[in-house]
Amino acid sequence: MINVEDKDFNQAVLEKIKTEKISPKPKWQFLLKNSLIWILGILSLILGAISTSLVFYMLTGEDSGIGHGPNILEALFFVIPFFWIICLTIFAVSVFFYIKHTKKGYKYSAKQIILFIIAASLLLGGLLNLIGVDRFIDDELGERAPFYDRVINPRLDYWSNPDSGRLTGMIVSQEDVDTYNLIDRNGEVWVVAFADDSHGEILIEHPVRLVGKKVADHQFVIKDVMSVGPGRGFFKRPHPGVMPKDLPIPCHSDTGKCALPIIIQTN
Known about the structure:
This protein is an alpha+beta fold.
């Protein structure tokens, strides 16, 4: 027996279809939308994995040097890779959104999707870290990305504070047994020399992080030397007009040496 209410409802629907000229969407539109969701979801997952690997790289790179500063909270702020953590969060939320909007996304609970995103990010991020993709990406960003040293990797900013005993830059030449020339992140030339009780190895054309004391204008006495991991690509940027041959190093007529003197001040 036909229900009168059902008949009225069906008639109303038919009238609405005729009045508004509603027609079914072609199948290709649904396929395109579904494919686009999957592509964007996979892309977000890959970018999230890259962000995860860069978090690993920033946290497990060479000695972070947290102890070389008067304020441990300030040091932690600059060492923790907030930029990549924020990127990871954005991509994780995107993956969650796209999974929910796939054809069968409604079948999965929020908890299941979140666990999947965490597991996939850790697995893929760990793999990218293992094969060195994160290192390559950081080098490229360091060499080319604007505001790299202040936004993407502010630890370079933290290590560019000679007045607080921290100096970072590229060693460009050696002038004596324990005296070197360094170009800092701003393209300025420093003369750096080892103190009597200092330790560490310095290689020419390699970026370094130095702990010590600023003793005069653009002169720095080294107490400790550390290599640069994350951010090393930044020091490959060219500094127009600053080349090793142009370094301001006067020669001394009495000794024949051409190294700037290091003025060691004692308190």
